[in-house]
């Protein structure tokens, strides 16, 4: 899928990929198409990407952290997103303040976020994306943020269409999302939102299966490492 077909473009430091991936999974769970892989290696490449893909149909989320705050590439991307008025600033480390020239239309503090959409920082992020793209969820505005910047207002019908779905239709849509990604995190999300859903038992079975698979892989890896250590010891003993 081309980059310009995504709803959200994410800028982040490679060192933060594990934390960013959890945020991305949450955004994808609410129906957003997120581009965050294959980060540009240079500022020139990233600026070219932003200028050709960020439009009035998508938005740019920058993940501020101890790692990204000192990155020239991330700062350049944030300034470009700020100029386009499509920037949402999100921080995952407490007390990080966005550098000058990177004013955003919305600010979200996820420094203590552990998952789910009820966290006030995640609600702020989702509302910022909603205001700019008309997609995802439209939660209540978060009570506070870590910086100034009113969110832009846009007319849209996405939320109304979502609200018109019956509980059974929402259940089915959520399950189809799970099947599309076939990821343990999504099955856990399904059980969180639909504990008595039509596919709750199957979701639990798939989670258990993936846990068993992970255990087997981890066990095999340990056996391999131990085998290598024993073989090394035996070889060294033969030398004496």
Secondary structure layout plus pairing:
Blueprint: E1 8-11, H1 17-29, E2 34-35, H2 43-53, E3 59-64, H3 72-83, E4 87-91, E5 106-109, H4 120-133, H5 158-163, H6 167-181, H7 184-193, H8 200-238
Parallel strand pairs: 1-2, 1-3, 3-4, 4-5
Helix pairs in contact: 2-3, 7-8
Summary tags:
alpha/beta; 50% helix
How does this structure look, described?
The chain is an alpha/beta fold and 240 residues long. It has a five-stranded parallel beta sheet with strand order 2-1-3-4-5. It is 50% helix and 9% strand.
Brief sketch in words of this structure:
Helices cover 50% and strands 9% of the residues. The protein is α/β, with parallel strands linked by helices and 240 residues long. The chain is flat.
The major β-sheet equals: 5 strands, parallel
Order of helices and strands: EHEHEHEEHHHHH
Helix content, binned percent: 40-55%
Approximate strand percentage? 5-15%
Number of strands: 5
Distance between the termini: 60 Å
The low-pLDDT segments are 148-162
């Amino acid at each position: 899928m081309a980059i310009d077909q995504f709803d959200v473009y994410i800028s982040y430091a490679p060192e933060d990929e594990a934390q960013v991936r959890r945020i991305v999974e949450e955004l994808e769970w609410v129906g957003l198409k997120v581009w965050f892989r294959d980060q540009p290696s240079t500022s020139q490449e990233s600026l070219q990407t932003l200028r050709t893909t960020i439009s009035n149909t998508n938005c740019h989320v920058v993940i501020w952290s101890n790692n990204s705050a000192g990155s020239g590439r991330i700062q350049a991307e944030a300034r470009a997103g700020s100029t386009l008025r499509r920037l949402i600033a999100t921080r995952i480390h407490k007390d990080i303040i966005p550098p000058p020239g990177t004013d955003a239309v919305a600010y979200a503090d996820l420094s203590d976020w552990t998952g789910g959409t009820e966290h006030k920082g995640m609600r702020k992020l989702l509302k910022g994306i909603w205001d700019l793209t008309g997609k995802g969820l439209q939660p209540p505005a978060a009570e506070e943020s870590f910086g100034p910047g009113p969110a832009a207002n846009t007319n849209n019908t996405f939320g109304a269409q979502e609200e018109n779905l019956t509980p059974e239709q929402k259940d089915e849509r959520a399950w189809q999302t799970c099947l599309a990604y076939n990821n343990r995190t999504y099955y856990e999300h399904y059980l969180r939102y639909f504990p008595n859903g039509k596919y709750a038992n199957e979701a639990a079975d798939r989670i258990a299966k993936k846990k068993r698979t992970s255990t087997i892989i981890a066990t095999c890896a340990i056996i391999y490492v131990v085998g290598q250590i024993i073989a090394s010891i035996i070889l060294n003993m033969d030398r004496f």
